[in-house]
Design goal:
Elements (H helix, E strand, L loop, with lengths): L1 E5 L2 E3 L5 E8 L2 E12 L6 E6 L5 E3 L7 E6 L4 E6 L8 E13 L2 E8 L3 E5 L2
Parallel strand pairs: 2-11
Antiparallel strand pairs: 1-3, 3-8, 4-5, 4-9, 5-6, 7-8, 9-10, 9-11
């Protein structure tokens, strides 16, 4: 199973970006999908989380500006980021709880994507 994140880049303050993260492999089902971020010298923090039952929670710092969504058929999670601020600058990582199979056996593991850089600067 792999998670492939994309969509990062350089944007001016007040601008928008949409991140995508697609899961691939021998996937049976996906539970919660999340986005985290890590700025230089800081810990990796939860930005947004979306459960398989469509419950969401957001970090206080992004609530009202960011929206997490998913396309179940495509095993993809999105993060729409609006009204971006310089303090949103970080590497963004996707994360997912994935049930996958190998032969006749099924496993559940937590997977991370490779990270995508978001830089908010004028």
């Amino acid at each position: 199973v792999q998670l492939q994140a994309s969509g990062g880049g350089l944007v001016q303050p007040g601008g928008s970006l949409r991140l995508s993260c697609a899961a691939s492999g021998r996937i049976f089902s996906i539970g919660a999908m999340s986005w985290y971020r890590q700025a230089p010298g800081k810990r990796r923090d939860l930005v947004a989380r979306l459960t398989s039952g469509s419950s969401t929670n957001y970090a206080d710092s992004v609530s009202g500006r960011f929206t997490i969504s998913r396309d179940t058929a495509k095993n993809t999670v999105y993060l729409q980021m609006n009204s971006l601020k310089p303090e949103d600058t970080a590497v963004y990582y996707c994360n997912a709880d994935v049930e996958y199979y190998k032969g006749t056996n099924y496993y559940v593991e937590n997977f991370w994507g490779q990270g995508t850089q978001v830089t908010v600067s004028s």
